[in-house]
Amino acid sequence: MLKIGITGGMGVGKTIVTHMFAVLGVPVYDADSRAKWVMHHHEALRQELLHAFGPETFSEQGELNRTYLAGVVFNNPQRLAQLNSLVHPHVRDDFEVWVASHADKPYVLKEAALMYESEAWKQMDEVIAVYAPMEVRLKRLAHRDAHRTEAEIKAIIAKQLSEEEKMRRAQHVLCNDDRQLVIPQVLALHKSFSSRGA
To answer: Is residue 71 part of an annotated ligand binding site?
Structure first.
């Protein structure tokens, strides 16, 4: 079985691309949603987070206080690195358990915005970088994240690994620029991965 990573910055459309693979019957692991699940349900991690970030990390009902946590780490690289060092090892373990449950498939996908930053790429056989030019991304994000200003969106993007670096590191680049057809690109990759992972 091949383990294929899929990544890309905000607004490139990696979720839509990932849905296309899912429609083709490919199991997809969403690292962001699984990280939230693990932070809620892994008791040892919950205790580590409480110790590192204080009682405000969880509400009285036991829900993760994402707004508080985001505020603590957004402009503090040291605190962000601390958070990632706690969460990412548990997500890697969770992914390996999930992979084992899909051992009958030729390949699986792991969608992760922080594929390289979290070093999740080391678990992958290959990585797809989804690409869209900045003007297209900003247009999409202005529609999707209407509660954010363009300056806020650009600030978030600026903290992510550059698209150029992601494309340089990835084995495959899928262009989602609203000009090239995406489905044929997905089908070509699916055919290749299916034949090699079978």
So the answer is: no
* 8 Å CB contact between 117 and 84: yes
Q: How far apart are CA 95 and CA 5, in angstroms?
A: 12
Residue 14 is assigned to a ligand binding site = yes
CA–CA distance, 119 with 115 (Å, rounded to integer): 6
Residue 129 has pLDDT above 90, yes or no: yes
Q: 166: annotated binding-site residue? A: no
The Cα–Cα gap between 102 and 122 comes to: 19
Whether the per-residue pLDDT at 13 is higher than 80: the answer is: yes
13 annotated as belonging to a binding site for a ligand: yes
CATH number of the domain residue 37 falls in = 3.40.50.300
Could you list the residue range(s) of the whole structural domain that residue 68 is in?
33-101
* Residue 57 annotated as lining a ligand binding site: no
Query: Is 25 labeled as ligand-binding?
Result: no
| Residue 110: pLDDT band with limits 50, 70, 90 | very high
